[in-house]
Amino acid sequence: MLKQIEGSRGVAEAVALCRPKVVCAYPITPQTHIVEALGEMVRTGELPDCEFINVESEFAAMSVAIGSSAGGVRSYTATSSQGLLFMTEAVYNASGMGLPIVMTLGTRAIGAPINIWNDHSDAMALRDAGWVMLFAETNQEAVDLHIQAFRIAESLGTPVMVCVDGFILTHAYEQLDIPEETLVTKFVGPFQPAYELDPEHPVTAGALVGPEAFAEVRYLAHHKQLQALKRIPALAEEFLQQFGRDSGGYFHAYNLEGASTVVVGMGSVVGTVLDVADELRKNGHSIGVMAITCYRPFPFDTVREALKRAERIIVIDRSITAGMGGPLAADIRLALENRLLPVHTIIAGLGGRPITKASLKKIFERAPLGELPEITFLDLNWDMVKNELGAEVA
Amino acid sequence: MIEPKIQEQSSVDGVQTRVKFYQTGTFTAGNRLLDKELRTVQSSQERSNAITCGHRACQGCGEALGARYALDAAIRAANGNIIAVNATGCLEVFSTPYPETSWQVPWLHSLFGNATAVASGVAAALRRQGKDHIRVVAQGGDGGTTDIGFGALSGMFERNDDVLYLCYDNQGYMNTGVQRSSATPPTARTATTPAVGKAPGNPFGIGKDVPRIAMAHNIPYVATASVANLHDLEEKVTKAMSIHGARYIHIFVPCPLGWAHATRDTIRVARLAVESGVWPLFEAEHGEVIHSSPIRRQIPVEEYLMTQGRFAHLFKPKRDEERLSALQAIANKNIERYHLIHEEANA
Amino acid sequence: MTRHFAISLPVGSSLENHTGAWRTERPQYADFLPPCNNACPAGENVQNWLYHAEEADYQEAWEEIMRNNPFPAIMGRACYHPCETACNRATVDEAVSIHSVERFLGDRAIAEGWHIKIATEKSGKRILIVGGGPSGLSAAYHLARLGHSVTIVEAEAKAGGMMRYGIPEYRLPRDVIDAEVQRILDMGVTLRLNEKVRDIPAAMKKESFDACFLAIGAHISKHVDIPSPDAGRVLDALHMLRDSENSSDKGALIGRRVIVYGGGNTALDVARSAKRLGGESIIVYRRTKEKMPAHAFEVEEAIEEGIQFRWLETIKHLSDETITIEKMKLDSDGYPQPTGEFEVISGDMVVLALGQDVDTSITTGIPGIKNDKDGIVSVDSNMMTGFPGLFAGGDMVPSERTITVAVGHGKKAARNIDAYLRGKEFSVKEKHTLATAEKLNTWYYSDAEKAVQPTLEMLRRRTTFEEVFGGLDETNALFEARRCMSCGNCFECDNCLAVCPDNAIRKLPMHLGMEPGKGRFEINYDYCKGCGICVAECPAGAMEMVPEVI
Q1: A176 inside 8 A of chain B by CB
Q2: For the structural domain made of C37-218+358-432, what CATH number should be given?
Q3: Which residue, A243, A274, A299, sits at the end of a domain?
Q4: Which CATH architecture has domain C224-356?
């Protein structure tokens, strides 16, 4: 059903259709509208048979979700930024315990300095936490990814984080197709608990594991991610069949065939990139776009295959690993293995800085000319930097 | 004519039940002459043994004992329908090193500071599955309760989640090598409050009284207990299990390693803590103290302190009169606050 | 469900880990000797019969007493209960009133007509017992239990010896003696009264006795010469008590103002009896109250009844209606010395209660017999005199002179006679280590003041021979039995089971034939880490730590 609603509302409705039994939340901008909506739906009965638990911190939010998931019910939470970092220990724990929790991350910068606006610093900080991480390109995809997320999580026994760009998506009103409940119910299926804490059949969960088995535990976690890598495109295909929409999967490819320049990005920035690429292609540029949806596990083989004819790659990174560069670019380089071709990192949109078509266009135009440095901070105000650093910056 | 001697024994619900006198039975675990229902859970070979043999707790571990006492009582109260959530700490480490676990109940360990929140989640899950007969117990040491898990504990309390939290208080971070916690008493020597300098050991005027903080949340039930008073402990757990909502029992569990006392003295040390007023035993409902257990044979605090190496510097090389009297004053305050000396008991 | 490798584990799997290897010391159950048992001259297993009494299994408790002592009802009244002096409960509040429980059991046995089954297999041996006092009756009882044929020859008109002729009725009613003596006779023991044996070897030979136990007591009163115009005014205590027992008109025997000379229990018995006979009793003793050989509680009872005491005085002279006494003082060694200070007091009779000697006439001429200057007969460790087959016990052999010691002698002699007749050596089991108060953890015992026996009202105490102390009713007897702390012996409080942090103690199911209190628990040394909490928290001190053998 088509609705003209805010992205957060769309996510909330999608989550509600998946019928979680426990939703726990601690407020943090820009995640708030999602959990507010869910809380309201629990009260009105739109989301029936569900506990909405106001907790005292994000650490508790994830911990309650750990408990309720282990306790045998579908569990959901949402957070952003500092909240994600505050729950970090529990985030790792949830994946270590193999709990199929689904969490929305309304992506946002991390302080200091405190900043409430969008980038991917939070998501990137926990990219090694053992969660499946999906990035929504649009609000429609955010809706769809949540439905897929529960299925992925529960079929594999792994938590799934759906990353939705803060404000840009979460607070944007647009027309969204909210799927029919019966379809969602059929697609998601009944909850499959990872553990059964049953007094009739007791088990110890969360044992201390020493050197004699720790590596094996970690290998098995890696193996599970590789399984997820197989499952994710299959589920996207199934979703397409049932809902008629191409959402999820590894990535969305736009005009990659024969493109000499490929721009790689994640999340809402892809929309802007596509506009610029379309314009450039009209002007004769050979440019394609790869919008990564499945960031963890990272589909190296498929990405490599899709990029095999590209001559240069521009990666839009929405965060910076200080002293190293762009984390997404690093993964792309890894995917390319031994192919020697330029990979340009564009650090863009940090802390909510607008990523304009004009700025991107300049970058994309320079790339084929060989004028693009390895790393570019988009629209960096050099006067401010120079003022601060003085003679250091030539 | 001589009146037959009948021993009064107060039961938890405040009803005075008259039972025949036995040489023991009021204080020992059992007694062959006692009615079965008046004996403790621990006196039965059929007890659940929530933690069974083979665990790796140190010799004489008070926490291993306290946890079994409390959980077995909870299991009995819930007809076996218990799920336990455990904070990181000694109890978790010594009971579940792969590939062996000592637990015989469904047991879940997540992290150091989140046992209460996890337990809240489990309770919510059970509620949503209609499994109201299964009850959730969360447990941790004093570090996991009064320090790192304090926020989660307070959150569980204020939400009045249906969780019984059991704090096994051995007054320090024993698992990591005996460091100070906010439950460490003044003057106690720990690895981070060494017995050196002008004021050796843990300073006065710091730390927190979590049972009273728990009471300030107006939760339905708060109690203190001790491994030295088994009947009392079991009665409190049983009572707590009869109540829904957030409940808190803070159990005193000596640590031979961290406190430097003889392994055989674990219960004795706990008993001396009670008998000196150092560890008041009381119950509170909705923020009000409703009952306290009188001291049976009062002793000066130093008799308690002398049993433990962590207080040795109060006596050697010379007696530290000033700080000994300050510690006595703390016990006196407890005695006054909780009315631990009953006139009739001493009559 | 999904099994998460390593993170989730099957419950109870730690049983694979045998933590017993950590142990350097091991706890074990022990049976230490309770101080009451240790102190009992009759060798009663007091703790064990209290164990049964606690369960209200009175007959079993009574039978346990009867293993060692055939007179529970008498002992519960007349024994000076050294068990209570030794009782560890005194360190908590007051000693257990063992005697009152024993009396309760003895009285119940009489009321219920309980009997002891005796060995069906007869030995065919015949034993002569000379003297039907506590020692002789005790020996007869034990020998009968062992299947022997026993004949008691008693010089007096009734059996009982000092129990009857030395202890006044107000302390020991005669129907109690009669009942407990009759029970022995009912076992087939022959009692011949009013008969004196003059020549033991001849008597044995004549009636083909295989052995003889001689227990005639000590009833020659010690005398001092007190100048007196009328010898009839000086009596000895035993005669006075004996006459009082045998006479139908007790009041005629006694003066109005009786001076009793001596400080022992007999002096008190005489003084208290005289008081009851309507006289006024004054005890004159040459040393202080504290030095009196009599039991302090009997002194207090006498004072309550109005007996007057004159300490640090000796009797120098009697004249009509008056008695001259000399005041004494204690020297630096605590001995009384004359002061030369005299006083004349009124009094129409003096009873000497200065102790007794043994009548040696019966042993004179028997080869191998040795007597000391007071006539006391020497016996070896088996209670046998120098004459083979002749055993002796009670007041006539070297020992403390109490009826309980005498009863103990009777038992010991009986067992030795039995061994002698069967050509065996009777050996006493080695005593266990004493269960001292430090071994106990008394915190666990409920606070319980001693149950008090009812006391006869004072007027009747002063004027009748009714028993001064009443018995406990069942409620109080049960209460008192349960005050026993079971020193050194398990009484199944389950503490060890409960306090083990390693669940290494198992409670065994009760099965037939298991001795109560023994073997109810088992330590699993596969898991016991040897912390010692079970030992420290055993209320009864019935466990001990022993080093592990390497």
Answers
A1: no
A2: 3.50.50.60
A3: A243
A4: 3-Layer(bba) Sandwich (3.50)
CATH number, span C13-31+490-547: 3.30.70.20
Task: Verify that A381 and A264 share a domain, yes or no.
Answer: yes
Alpha carbons C24 and C529: distance in angstroms, whole number:
8
Q: Does A193 sit within 8 Å of C5, measured CB to CB?
A: no
Q: Closest partner residue to A206 among C1, C7, C11, by Cβ?
A: C7
**Domains contained in chain B, number:** 1
Measure the CA angle with vertex C33, ends C31 and C35; round to 5°: 145
> Residue B223: inside a domain, yes or no?
yes
Q: What is the pLDDT of residues A84-100, one digit of tens each?
A: 999 999 999 999 999 99
How far from A104 is each of A131, C174, C478, CA to CA, in Å? 12, 98, 72
The total domain count for chain A is 2
Indicate if A232 and A286 belong to the same structural domain: no
State the DSSP code for C383: S
> Does the beta-carbon distance from A203 to C2 stay under 8 Å?
no
Average pLDDT, chain B: 93
Phi, psi of C234 (to 5 degrees): -115, 120
Confidence tier at B34 by pLDDT (50, 70, 90):
confident
Q: Are the C-beta atoms of A178 and A1 separated by less than 8 Å?
A: yes
Which tokens sit at A27?
């407020």
A274 min Cα distance to partner chain C (Å):
43
> Does any CB of chain A come closer than 8 Å to the CB of residue B217?
no
> Which pLDDT does position B343 carry in this prediction?
67
Of the residues A203, A212, A216, the best mutation for testing chain C's interface (the one with the most C CB atoms within 10 Å of its CB) is A203
* CATH code of the domain containing B317: 3.40.50.970
Task: Please judge whether B120 and A67 are an interchain contact, meaning their C-beta atoms are less than 8 angstroms apart.
Answer: yes
Candidates C503, C522, C528, partner chain B, best to mutate (most B CBs within 10 A): C503
Pairing verdict, β C234-236 and C349-352? parallel
Final residue of a domain: which of A207, A224, A243?
A243
* Tens digits of residue pLDDT in A344-365: 999 999 999 999 999 999 999 9
Cβ separation B65–C486 shorter than 8 A: no
pLDDT category at B2 given cuts 50, 70, 90 is: very low
Instruction: Render pLDDT for C146-202 as a digit per residue (tens, 0 to 9).
Output: 999 999 999 999 999 999 999 999 999 999 999 999 999 999 999 999 999 999 999
pLDDT at C247 over 80: no
The percent helix, strand, coil of chain B (3-state, each to 5) is 35, 15, 45
Size of the A and B interface in Cβ pairs below 8 Å: 161
pLDDT, residue B10, reads 37
φ, ψ (nearest 5 deg) of residue C260: -100, 130
Confidence band, pLDDT 50/70/90 cuts, at residue C118: confident
| Minimal Cβ distance to B108: which of A55, A206, A212 | A206
Mind listing the pLDDT tens digit for each residue in B225-276? 999 999 999 999 999 999 999 999 999 999 999 999 999 999 999 999 999 9
The Cα A130–Cα C127 span in angstroms is: 96
- CB spacing of A209 vs C6 below 8 angstroms: yes
Identify the band that residue A339 occupies on the pLDDT scale cut at 50, 70 and 90: confident
Which residue segment(s) compose the domain that B259 sits in?
A: 47-346
Tell me if B110 and A55 make a contact (CB, 8 A cut-off): no
The pLDDT assigned to B344 comes to 57
**Is-same-fold flag (C13-31+490-547; C224-356)?**
no
| DSSP letter assigned to residue A325 | B
| Chain C residue whose CA is closest to A154 | C2
Output the pTM of the full model.
0.92
Q: Please give the Cα distance from C473 to C46 (Å, whole number).
A: 20
